[in-house]
Design a protein that fits this description.
Length: 46
Amino acid sequence: MREILRDSSEFGSLYLGGTAMIASDMMSFVKSDLNYFGIGVFEFSF
């Protein structure tokens, strides 16, 4: 979603809001948390 907004910024201002914004943010938060958790588990196991 955010990539689409960045790509079309030359045509005007588009804003992401509502459930699409929440879903996009939640996906990025979960991916980030999984990365940190995976690194922590890896470091803890060795």
